[in-house]
Amino acid sequence: MMKSLIIVFAVFLALNLNGQNSIQVQEDPRITSLMDQYLRNNRTITQISGWRVTVISTTDRRVMEKTKAEFQNNFNLSTRWEYKEPYYQLKAGAFLNRADATAALESVKKKFSTAFISLDKIPYEEFKY
After folding, report:
1. Is 67 within 8 Å of 90 (Cβ atoms)?
2. Strand partners, 51
3. Within a 10 A sphere around the Cβ of 91, how many other Cβ atoms?
4. Which end of the chain is more exposed for a tag (fewer CB within 10 A), N or C?
């Protein structure tokens, strides 16, 4: 009895597997159009809102450059600077969430006590996956 049940199950399974090769999906053209529009719209988005550690904000570019060199000698975070009149801001890291940025800030503050975290628009390429 058990052997015949196993044989029937195996034959049924084999017939089912052959039938699965002939499945066809008919996609509504409106769905295709919506997906194409979604992809076109989202290709233009190249940045995401994230967090950075602002190491220093100063009106003296030489101070910012000196701080950048010192920071790079002490930490393994990417740096970039921005000029927002009248301040030069040295920013470090690229974090998706505030908790990660705060953890980095704690170690940075040991050397640069005026550092703080700030929201920033960060290009996707800066995130390492």
Report:
1. yes
2. 95, 119
3. 23
4. C
The tokens describing 77, both together, are 């975070």
How far, in Å, CA of 71 to CA of 118, rounded? 17
Longest Cα–Cα distance of the chain, Å, equals: 90
The full length of the chain comes to: 129
Contact 50, 122 (CB under 8 A): yes
pLDDT of 51-86, one tens digit each? 999 999 999 999 999 999 999 999 999 999 999 999
Rounded distance between C-alpha atoms, residue 56 and residue 111, angstroms: 12
Buried b (16+ CB within 10 A) or exposed e, 4-23: eeeeeeeeeeeeeeeeeeee
Is the whole-model pTM more than 0.90? no
Q: In what order do the strands lie in the sheet with 79-84?
A: 79-84, 87-95, 47-58, 116-123
- Phi–psi pair at 116, nearest 5 degrees: -150, 165
Copy the structure tokens of residue 121. Answer: 């628009």
50-59 exposure pattern, b = at least 16 Cβ within 10 A, e = fewer: bbbbbbbbbe
**Domain topology for 47-126:** Alpha-Beta Plaits (3.30.70)
